[in-house]
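Practice problem: predict the structure.
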Amino acid sequence: MTQATLVASNLTKVIGKRTIVDHVSFSLDPGQVFGFLGPNGAGKTTTIRMLVGLIKPTAGTVTVCGYDVRRDFVKAMRSVGCIVENPDLYRFMTGRENLEHFARMLGVERSEIERVAELVALAHRLEQRVGTYSLGMRQRLGIAQAMLGRPKLLILDEPANGLDPAGIREIRELLRGLARDQHMSVFVSSHLLAEVELMCDRVAIIHKGRLLREGSVAEMISSRREMEFRVDDVARAMAIVHHRGLEGRTDGDRFWLPIDESETPAIVAALASDGVAVFHAQRRVETLEEMFLQATGGETVD
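Answer:
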């Protein structure tokens, strides 16, 4: 059985009388991209700081590649590359000089610089000052910096924050590639829910310090399926479906039924036989954003 790269078990943080994080548990396997979501004040940043040993948990444990972060901090952190908030880069230095500086701090070979630069598609810009880089390039250089020590776990806080659509796509493809090709585990805190849906294999939703939901993206967004119909007479259509024992919801010239796609032909036939014109019928799958807003009571993500 493959060992989990990251395991958080009953992670709890209490400050004064306030519980910031309350018995949060999740795990991340090699080759997975894991999204960590939560509204303002949910406890995301506090959790991340406990994962990397910046603050001590009140209770619970964190293990990285089998090493307890509190008992074996150095061994655990050897497997971690991390960017909390913005990458810490020197803009007056070139990309290469930045990576050389951090390579010396980590005690890794300078040959690693070429490797990580290729991985983030910055090899051709290393001789330019970081001050001339776009935000997306600085984010990629920060990720290169985090990968200098060949980590098995990459922890990123808002890696696509402030990027334009092209930059967001670059970061998404980069992280997916690292998970797929390098078999790296990638932990991402993000407020871009549509992007998380595209990028992540698994997600966890934290709210008021507690984990509300955790599982694969496919499971999350397929948990609620329904069919959408557009017709010329909604009131009449609803009377027909009610007669068949179905309850739905309406909006304008549309209504939705909690049925499988395979049941749709019979509904369309029943409507048509009773003179209701059906303009379209299509399957509707709940998005991650809709599921998130429902789970958190509509609170926004930070």
